UniProtKB/TrEMBL annotation:
Keywords: Oxidoreductase. InterPro entries: Gfo/Idh/MocA-like_OxRdtase_C, Gfo/Idh/MocA-like_OxRdtase_N, Gfo/Idh/MocA_oxidrdct_glycsds, Glc-Fru_OxRdtase_bac, NAD(P)-bd_dom_sf, TAT_signal. GO terms for molecular function: glucose-fructose oxidoreductase activity; nucleotide binding. It comes from Sphingomonas prati. The keyword Transmembrane does not apply. It holds the Pfam family GFO_IDH_MocA. The lineage of its organism: Bacteria, Pseudomonadati, Pseudomonadota, Alphaproteobacteria, Sphingomonadales. Gene3D superfamilies: Dihydrodipicolinate Reductase, domain 2, NAD(P)-binding Rossmann-like Domain. Residues 4-127 form the Gfo/Idh/MocA-like oxidoreductase N-terminal domain. This is Glucose-fructose oxidoreductase. The keyword Oxidoreductase applies. It is an enzyme of class 1 (oxidoreductase). Residues 162-333 form the Gfo/Idh/MocA-like oxidoreductase C-terminal domain.
Length: 337
């Protein structure tokens, strides 16, 4: 059976990346749309064959409760709206897929998890890289000690932010590059190690005369120290383009670049004296369809998603520690954060 998804927020990511991928899905289908713009509802309903009865505005969103065709609600709204709509969806008896960052604070993440538990519904975060073949390979190689036990991870993520958008308004975004793109460096450091950091040390560099960065940070560099001794050095930037990580061990390194882009992943492995590209078979399900189907399959089999709400909460705990470290100019211990 294909479970029915309602997409909430018909912006760039939803319409250009997510909605076109349902045709690849084996366990998921697009059945409903939620938007504040009637023209968008009409246009996308026609394009995807969604009946008018399954189109909702934000005002009548809670009526999804009465629509048995909707199994899962996918929140693709600005960050500050994730918690409210995830909680309302759970209260309406629906499973929830929520985009990253899960919310704008640890407290909101905890409230989302509590609401889903209370409703006995699943909650998953849109960490698509976990369904992307090169990232899965990198996890297996790093944790399997392919270049020896991992010692260092370097992860860099950034892009040049365009002015005048909600991402640059702290009230909507909850923060700057770290909330949006640096979270890929953080999440990769956590999934490549399979560990939670013990300490966090961060430095922020933001040109406050740049009108884009009036309320949010541009650049924030952070170092995570993990229990096994692995150190991750991470970059998060809104003013330079990076998308890569390197896993370094005593016998070589594994490079991924682009590492977490929408497509075109490449991997190179240096082992001993040899440097070789790692090429995986083409034609696998895209990370987007993999992510959508994973939640459907978890609902059908009553399994916990590999990137459940707890995973978003774990990132948010570290994000709050990164901001605290930068603000206070000191290393923050996670057990005291
Ligand atoms: P966007 O601005 O293109 O879309 C946001 C949508 O929310 C728009 O349709 C907008 O109309 C709607 N909206 C509803 N109420 C709003 C309000 N009060 N103010 C502003 N917009 C409002 O943004 P996007 O790039 O699609 O990002 C949406 C979410 O998806 C964010 O949480 C972002 O972090 C996430 N995202 C994830 C990925 C990924 O690769 N996983 C990529 C891009 C975005």
């Amino acid at each position: 059976r294909k479970l029915g998804y309602a997409i909430v927020g018909l912006g760039s990511y939803a319409t250009k990346q997510i909605m076109p991928r349902f045709k690849e899905c084996t366990s998921s289908q697009l059945v409903a749309l939620v938007s504040g713009t009637p023209e968008k509802l009409t246009r996308y309903a026609a394009e995807y064959g969604v009946p008018a009865a399954n189109c909702y505005s934000y005002k009548d969103f809670d009526r999804i409760r009465d629509n048995p065709a909707i199994d899962i609600v996918y929140i693709v709204l600005p960050n500050s709206m994730h918690a409210e709509y995830s909680i309302r969806a759970a209260r309406a008896g629906k499973h929830v897929m929520c985009e990253k960052p899960m919310a704008v604070s640890v407290a909101e993440c905890e409230a989302m998890i509590a609401a889903s538990r209370k409703a006995n519904r699943k909650l998953m975060i849109g960490y698509r890289s976990r369904f992307e073949p090169y990232n899965r390979e990198a996890i297996a190689l790093a944790r399997g000690g392919h270049v020896g036990p991992t010692k260092i991870i370097n992860a860099e993520h950034g892009f040049t932010a365009k002015p005048d958008q909600w991402r640059l308004d702290r009230a909507m975004s909850g923060g700057g590059s770290l909330m949006d793109i640096g979270i890929y460096s953080l999440n990769a450091a956590r999934y490549l190690t399979g560990e939670e950091p013990m300490t966090v040390t961060a430095v922020e560099s933001t040109d406050k005369s740049d009108p884009r960065f009036k309320t949010v940070e541009d650049r924030i560099d952070f170092m995570l120290k993990f229990p096994s001794g692995i150190i991750a050095n991470c970059v998060s930037s809104y003013n330079s383009n990076h998308n890569r990580y390197r896993i370094v061990g005593p016998n070589g390194y594994i490079d991924a670049e682009p590492a977490t882009a929408y497509e075109g992943q490449r991997m190179t492995i240096r082992k001993g004296d040899a440097t070789m590209p790692r090429v995986l078979p083409a034609g696998q399900k895209s990370q987007f369809a993999g992510q959508l189907d994973h939640l459907s399959e978890c609902v059908l089999a009553d399994r916990q998603p590999i990137v459940a709400g707890e995973e978003g909460l774990a990132d948010m705990r570290v994000i709050e520690a990164i901001y605290r470290s930068a603000r206070e100019g000191r290393t923050v211990r996670m057990d005291r954060a």
